Amino acid sequence: MKSIKTKYLPATNTSGARIKATAGGMSVTVPYDHSKSDVHVHFEAVKGLVEKHGLDWDVSRMVYGGTEGGYVFCFPQSIIEA
């Protein structure tokens, strides 16, 4: 299953707040856009990861869930039938 984990990184003396997205050893860090809602800021990091690494993942229908420091985004085709 493909999944992308995002994490909030607070501002430091040299950098503003940002979001880091990771998947399978790949990563990207994007600035925190305060004009967007929290989940949309994290989703921007997901799109940044896909773009940076030239992945052919269609992120338009991803599902997500919250974690302690961010979110995990995955694809709806990874469903368990009950």
Please write out the topology:
Layout: E1 3-9, E2 18-23, E3 26-31, H1 38-52, E4 63-66, E5 70-74
Antiparallel strand pairs: 1-2, 1-5, 2-3, 4-5
- What is the structural class? alpha+beta
Q: What number of structural domains do the residues give? A: 1
Task: Give the neighbour order of strands across the main sheet.
Answer: 3-2-1-5-4
pLDDT < 50 stretches: none
Helix count, DSSP H or I runs of 4 or more residues: 1
- The shape is globular
Helix content range of the residues, please? 10-25%
Helix-strand pattern: EEEHEE
Distance between the termini: 18 Å
Could you characterize what this model shows?
The structure is a single chain. This protein has about 80 residues and is an alpha+beta fold. A hairpin with a 2-residue loop joins β2 and β3. It has a five-stranded antiparallel sheet, with helices on one face. The model has no long low-confidence stretch (mean pLDDT about 90). The protein is globular. It contains one helix and five strands.
